[in-house]
């Protein structure tokens, strides 16, 4: 993405994102505007963001991922919104695909193939790849759901789904198992709070979901090919499935 900047506003949510943010924003230099929405960082995140001429900083308390992403889009200069996590990096191949995107069709919703990394290793098994996620959309056509967790871009009846070539590099688990566990705890807590009193959950349901998630990740999605890393990833996926239902069960019956 060189020469003229793409007529797109990228949105990036941050909180204590100093480890990866510079790498993320470096890859977005070809985007006309980047809206960094921060919710309470106390590290060097904001200082890093201020170094980029195309970055606008907005600060807001955490109100759920979906709501924050829509709030960030409201501060955008352009109608085309590219949502990127602070630990994600646009590859050169994906940048080239973005430059060729059809910005004349507001009904197009563009997905990207996210390539997740664990301790610096690209993982193409375990159900982690191709992790296709919709990320580029026209804000007058659609938006993110308001879900606190597992938010998605809403596909309208007339939306047109397109998958861009090239990978979105995801570096969320450079620290290994500790980061997997921390993220699992955070997301399962959010899931339980969001669905408490609205959905039921049982211990048997939790166990069944956890067991199936492990078998799917480690066996069917070939996590075993990644040795110990594959085992850790598969067990974390199983734990996520198990504990979100256990926490929901406990939230329903305090």
Automatic annotation (TrEMBL):
N-terminal signal peptide: none
EC number: 2.4.-.-
EC class name: transferase
CDD domains per the UniProt record, alphabetical: Beta4Glucosyltransferase
Domain Glycosyltransferase 2-like: 11-121
Superkingdom, natural source: Bacteria
Alphabetized GO MF terms: glycosyltransferase activity
Alphabetic keyword roster: Glycosyltransferase, Transferase
Similarity comment text for this entry: Belongs to the glycosyltransferase 2 family. WaaE/KdtX subfamily.
Protein name from the UniProt record: Glycosyltransferase family 2 protein
Organism: Conchiformibius kuhniae
